[in-house]
Amino acid sequence: MDDKISSEIYEKLEPLGIKFGEPDENDREFSARFHFDGNCGFYHISDEKCEFLILKGIFKDNVRLLKGKIGIQPKKMSKIADRLSNIEKNLDFAPLVNFFIDDDIYISHISRDLHSESGDKQKFDPRKIPAGLSEVEFSLQHSDFAREKNLYFKGMLSELFPETLSPLSRSILNELPDILNPIFVHAGFKTYSPSVKLIAGKLYTNLSNLQLAFNTMETGDDFLKMNFAPSLYMKNPKNKFKNLNLDLLDIKIDEIETYSRELRDSIQSVSFENLYNGTLCEHLALFAMLGQMIFFRLSSIFIKILKRVKNIQRAAELIYKTRNSNLFEKLSGRSIPKYLDAFAPYAEFPQGIAYGKKSIEELTAGMGFLKKAFHGENLSQSIKAAHRFLDKRDELIMTAIDYFKAVDNVLRVAGNELVDKRQIAKPDQLYWLELNEIKNIKKGDYYGNIPFSLYFKRVQHERYKAQFCPNLIYEKDINRIPDIFNGLISKYNNNIEVSCRTLNPVKEKTFVYNGEDISDSGGLAVFSRISIADIPKLKDTDWIICDYAPLFSLLFEYACITDKSLYTGLNGSEVFLRGKKATLSGDRLIIEKSD
């Protein structure tokens, strides 16, 4: 550290009560980085005896030992966290700090952390920190009045929303816990609450609630589990499903058309006032209801087709490979957000994905003359109906993208206004705040400390991103997420065979996964979720392993029309396969024991 920087740093920090000094030979000198493997939610501290983390923004249950023995008294640990926090908030660069402990905490050296500033950060591995949240934070993830037996799943809308939502997006969804229930309440169904919830910033859907609805519609929950809980489904897989009794929901085609027009027209009315006066919540509820209507219609049609062809892959190919167009073509050349979230970057969607459209006759060539004659006309009509509702699905997604872009434009204007008033430093800092906070700041009714709120939300969001959460979790087990995670780590460190729901399964393919989501060289892709914007990157991929790919997802459609091998049903694919040797064999994924 040169004298000029040293002088500047001293002048900034010394008035804050931060002490400087040189350690003697008996003092333990620690090194502190202000991130851990690129995640800025932790202080990473080490010396020759130990290595540990301090959770930022938390003052109890905030230490995570990585190795060795710490040997620092709790009061001194609190002082370390306080000193590092003051340094971080008052420097405009990521520092590397050396300190020692005597009667107080003394800083012996500060320099720029070139590793942090280079951007060359290794991919974060959540296995190193099973508990990135404090016990209090985990307890706050519970929903008031929720049943302990509520089972939640994480895979719905995984192509539209990121794994961890921004603080702004979370604040909006927190106002809509029962957004999926009106369609059932209208039909007189019993429901469970909440229908959706957030755990460590991650969007979960109440599977118990949907199971109750499917059972009420006289179909059982096997089809539901096949789509959204494949690990449960593969314990007893079935190719036969009872059809949904949609008469109970009274879903009318003209209602779908009307709601589609209403949502398309609503884009013109997006304004900042409409974000908080109830209009946004009404529109989001309408998006949810229309999406459910389309899903139930598609589910009913798919089950009918499956009854005729007796094979899930053939049913999927009959639906997807015979379409005249798809969403990939409709999005060609358009600028779209990676996810429908405030933090998501925009990218131009590539030109249409080439695939050979097939006729129904080509795809049913192996069925035999009598079978085709018996099912022919009915099958053709069902496939046309599937195409109609897939077009409605595509239209809804495009409307959602355009609606999001309109909201994003309104927020950008608001962000620039707050910068002009010197209430925030950068327009994108707005996304770290909750919607009500933004409204109150604009109106002059916010009495909190804006810099403190921005800092706390930023570091908590980073820790939320670091926290692994299982794809399926009971309400009663939310506090046990770190223990569940440790159990999964042990499970995947041994020889294990996972039954997967597959499309185009391979006879045998052995690989070692190096942690790269989508390899530039093609071949294998492994990820928990993928955005619509990133699906075209799979063009040179032959084998896809992922956590979720529901039958009516864009990923499943893409794999179907491009003949990719798709394996789904793992719990944390990109986490637990990292560094592992594994083999795809039929519908199984065989993972070898770690050394």
Determine the structural class based on helices, strands and strand pairing. Answer: alpha+beta
Number of helices: 21
Strand residues, percent: 15-25%
Unreliable stretches, pLDDT < 50, 5 or more residues? none
Strand order of the largest sheet: 1-7-6-2-3-4-5
Total beta-strand segments: 21
Helical coverage, percent range: 40-55%
Mean pLDDT: 92
Strand count, sense and barrel status of the largest sheet are:
7 strands, mixed
* Outline: globular
Rounded to the nearest angstrom, the distance between the terminal CA atoms is: 42 Å
Radius of gyration: 26 Å
What does it look like?
- α12 crosses α13.
- The chain has 21 helices and 21 strands.
- β11 and β12 form a beta hairpin.
- By secondary structure, the chain is an alpha+beta fold.
- The strands form 5 sheets. Strands 1-7-6-2-3-4-5 form a 7-stranded mixed beta sheet.
- Helices cover 40% and strands 16% of the residues.
Task: Spell out the blueprint of helices and strands.
Elements: H1 3-13, E1 19-20, E2 29-33, E3 42-46, E4 50-55, E5 63-68, H2 74-90, E6 95-101, E7 105-112, H3 114-118, H4 135-139, E8 151-153, H5 167-173, H6 182-186, E9 196-199, E10 202-206, H7 207-216, H8 222-228, H9 230-233, H10 253-266, H11 272-276, H12 279-309, H13 312-320, H14 327-330, E11 335-337, E12 346-348, H15 360-363, H16 369-420, H17 435-443, H18 450-466, E13 472-474, H19 481-492, E14 496-499, E15 501-503, E16 509-512, E17 523-527, E18 541-546, H20 554-561, E19 565-568, H21 573-576, E20 581-585, E21 588-591
Parallel strand pairs: 1-7, 17-18, 18-19
Antiparallel strand pairs: 2-3, 2-6, 3-4, 4-5, 6-7, 8-10, 8-13, 9-10, 11-12, 14-21, 15-19, 16-20, 20-21
Helix pairs in contact: 10-12, 10-16, 12-13, 12-16
